[in-house]
Design brief:
The structure is a homodimer. By secondary structure, chain A is mainly alpha-helical. The first copy, chain A, is built from 10 helices and 2 strands, in the order αββααααααααα. A two-stranded antiparallel sheet of chain A has the order 1-2. Chain A is globular and about 55 Å long. Chain A starts with a helix and ends in a 5-residue tail after the last helix.
Chain lengths: 192, 192
């Protein structure tokens, strides 16, 4: 029991990991804990648009755990020119440390989910990726392109990073976003 | 698709609903969105202590939606001498409005989950309640009784509000907490 409690209290640190996107109703950057809740809700609500036989419970679990490594690494905006292989290796070390607070069986279950998300080879992981990429876009579309402007992100850069995963994981969502992004470009909501 | 997006953006408001408990690693009050994520993780991690045949996927879903009504009503500390029937009626109206942004089938699914949580008549709802009551206690135990002190909450008041639901929903968790609460009382972490 104490190991479970230690783990859940360690998770409290994700509330202090800030992302580049602001919340819509207060002038602060969102954190990765509340983001994890919101994308679980996004994926669940988008279930009618998921590929046939997608296990939505599995998608929800993938999304609840996918950002936990940021407790040690912080969040990196998806449009960054980062060394993504090195970042992912750091995140793996982080989740091994954090999930390792739990008893072995539970730690292995969470690590397998984290790895499934990263590998992106199941329809559940692909749908989860689509939701994860879409959520900050939806917030930006509701917020005059706030994080695109602040970070100098172009329309082309956004499309280059999100089109493939979203159109693969949830084609109807990409169809929706493509039009919205074109409107946002016309409105001048990108950073360059 | 637009109705799903409208719903998920409406959910952003839950990030601005503050609770009485502070996060452990920054001097601010936690919000109900990040709380919803953390208790889903608590319930999931406590699965080995759940009653036999508890559907943990169902518990996670109950917890992800249970606080959404607070978008309209705000959070009320569980130890308050509030008119709980009136509060729950307000919350019901709130979730009917918010879930009603979704297509009918999805709205009905979420409302049924919200009602299942409130009714507390399934083992899943009872386990979810135990987790919901336990989480702020665990934060207080890690934070020198912060919200108990700030709100003048006594040891007796805490036990009166949490013993029944936690010992019913997750007996092992109550056994753990009873000892920790006794220690906290000894340490003077209660408000009166």
């Amino acid at each position: 029991m104490q190991s479970v409690i230690d783990f859940v209290l360690e998770l409290d640190k994700l509330k202090t990991v800030t992302r580049k996107t602001k919340t819509l109703h207060s002038d602060r950057y969102e954190n990765s804990a509340e983001h994890s809740w919101q994308i679980a809700m996004l994926a669940w609500s988008l279930a009618p648009y998921a590929p046939a036989n997608t296990d939505i419970n599995q998608v929800i679990k993938l999304l609840l755990v996918h950002d936990i490594g940021e407790i040690d690494t912080g969040d990196t905006i998806v449009y960054a020119n980062a060394d993504w292989d090195a970042l992912k290796a750091e995140e793996l070390a982080a989740v091994q440390r954090i999930f390792g607070l739990l008893p072995d069986g539970a730690a292995a279950e969470l690590l397998a989910l984290w790895q499934e998300f990263e590998a992106g080879s199941t329809i559940e992981a692909q749908f989860a990726h689509a939701c994860d990429r879409a959520m900050p876009v939806l917030l930006n579309l509701a917020n005059n392109g706030q994080s695109w402007r602040e970070n100098g992100i172009s329309y082309q850069r956004v499309v280059a990073r999100i089109e493939a995963p979203i159109s693969q994981g949830c084609p109807a969502l990409w169809q929706y976003l493509a039009q919205r992004l074109a409107d946002a470009r016309h409105a001048g909501w990108f950073g360059c």
